[in-house]
Amino acid sequence: MTDANAFDAVLDAIRFTADGLVPAIAQAEGSGEILMMAWMNRDAVVETLTTGRVCYWSRSRGGLWRKGETSGQVQRLKDFRVDCDGDTLLLVVEQDGVACHTGRRSCFYRAWRDGTLEVIQEVETDPSVLYGHQGHSHG
Length: 139
Known about the structure:
Shape: globular
Low-confidence stretches: none
Distance between the termini: 28 Å
CATH class: Alpha Beta
CATH topology: Ubiquitin-like (UB roll)
Strand content: 25-35%
Mean pLDDT: 92
Structural class: alpha+beta
Protein name: Phosphoribosyl-AMP cyclohydrolase
Radius of gyration: 15 Å
CATH architecture: Roll
Number of domains: 1
Strand order of the largest sheet: 2-1-6-5
Binding site for Zn(2+): 84, 100, 107
Largest sheet: 4 strands, mixed
Cofactor: Zn(2+); Mg(2+)
Pfam family, one: PRA-CH
CATH superfamily: Phosphoribosyl-AMP cyclohydrolase
Helix content: 10-25%
């Protein structure tokens, strides 16, 4: 199913911003843990649905960002959901390794505790192992 017209219905249901983007939340299959939030454009949506490998739009790089192509921490799509307003996507994924460029399972590793932000998840994988020494950030 690679014909772009096959995706018209889902693309019509999504309310992209003026920049052509929509926020996408990645949630771990099974545990329901929220792993990260990133942006998708139409091409990223179509590629994700076509290949089953999650692809985002990197605002910093100005191009498609195939999750895991640099780090090996691939996300495989298990379910693709559009919210009631069509302005946010929920991607239920099978995550290889860690989702966050800091080497933590989730990007949401800081929590408000007793008047301060506390780190509640430790680094699982050294980011220099994931990305070499180039540095990396979400789009």
